[in-house]
From TrEMBL:
Pfam families: ABC_tran (PF00005). Belongs to the ABC transporter superfamily. InterPro entries: AAA+_ATPase, ABC_transporter-like_ATP-bd, ABC_transporter-like_CS, P-loop_NTPase. It comes from Paenibacillus antibioticophila. This is ABC transporter ATP-binding protein. The keyword ATP-binding applies. It comes from the Bacteria. The lineage of its organism: Bacteria, Bacillati, Bacillota, Bacilli, Bacillales. SMART domains: AAA (SM00382). One of its GO terms (molecular function) is ATP hydrolysis activity.
Length: 295
């Protein structure tokens, strides 16, 4: 199975949100990383065939997804970023409704819903109205609806937004297991959510795919640029201006250990450390980037 995206662009009036993106997705978990405004949602909505590209094409095993229509939708699951529910429905009624829309065979519906409720630890709230649920629970109901038809291609836009640390861990394990022989594409700006489960990652910036690779391959881009050292706490205001500090920890005794990004060591006691995906992300997306809007 291969989902091939070729020279895909999307233009909204004066804004090109996705610029000439080419990417071939194969089975496994794919992380789509990028700051707010990078174009992740726009790209995913085109892959979901709910937004028409301005140019370019998306093929599944050589067939246009748009031309496949119903056939594509039957093997596809989507969790949109802004997920509007029928909030007055109970969780169970809502999932039964979606199952009917997706042509899940009636005799399989109950078993499927029960198993998803169980996996996503929603069984206890299945008779509650969606409107009464916490943000994390709603997100998990959203994940459940995307998976009802046992999709071969699962696209989830910021699935871990609003989940607490325990829920994030369960989500990661569950997706890892699920991804066998399927294409799972997950967008996030929370790097740790995909760092250890993604087969490959695509890094998106200002509408373009900057790089594609495994986490190990990608972090190499930040090799030689991540340092740690200890500095006196009263000098921190100066270091905060001079260094791109990723992390700081107060060690007590007027000492602060810091992790920073630079082309070379900036203090005498700095030690070069192996980069993590988050370091690369911050290297590629300095803070001002997510604020600055590029046309
Ligand atoms: N319907 C739209 N009309 C106009 N501009 C849009 C529309 N949707 C997205 N954009 C713009 O396209 C860019 C990419 O947005 P989006 O795909 O939502 O990025 P991300 O999901 O990575 O945050 C942003 O600058 C956004 O404002
Ligand atoms: Mg988005």
């Amino acid at each position: 199975m291969e989902l091939t995206i070729t020279n895909l662009s999307k233009r909204f009036k004066d804004k090109t949100a996705v610029k000439d993106v080419s990417l071939t997705l194969t089975p496994g978990v794919w992380g789509l990383l990028g700051a707010n405004g990078a174009g992740k949602t726009t790209l995913m909505r085109m892959i979901a065939d709910i937004l028409n590209p301005t140019s370019g094409k998306i093929l599944l095993d050589g067939k246009s997804i748009h031309a496949m229509g119903e056939e594509y939708r039957n093997l596809f699951g989507f969790l949109p970023q802004d997920f509007g529910f029928f909030q007055g429905f109970t969780v169970k009624d809502y999932l039964e409704y979606v199952a009917a829309l997706k042509d899940v065979p009636a005799r399989e519906t109950r078993k499927k819903i029960d198993s998803l409720l169980h996996t996503l630890t929603l069984t206890d709230v299945k008779n509650k109205k969606v409107i009464k649920l916490s943000g994390g629970m709603k997100r998990r109901v959203g994940i459940a609806q995307a998976m009802l038809n046992d999709p071969k291609i699962l696209i989830m836009d910021e699935p871990t937004a609003g989940l607490d640390p325990g829920e994030r861990v369960r989500f990661r394990n569950f997706i890892s297991e699920f991804s066998h022989n399927r294409i799972v594409l997950i967008s996030t700006h929370i790097v740790s959510d995909i760092e250890y489960i993604s087969t490959k990652n695509a890094v998106m910036k200002a509408g373009k795919i900057l790089d594609v690779g495994t986490t190990d391959e990608l972090v190499k881009l930040a090799a030689g640029k991540v340092f740690t050292c200890t500095v006196p706490a009263d000098r921190m205001p100066m270091y905060e201006v001079q260094l791109r500090i990723i992390n700081q920890r107060n060690e007590g005794n007027n000492q602060v250990s810091i992790r920073y990004l630079a082309d070379e060591a900036r203090t005498n006691d700095s030690v070069l450390v192996p980069p993590r995906l988050e370091d690369l992300y911050l290297w590629l997306f300095p803070q001002e980037d997510s604020i600055k809007e590029e046309k």
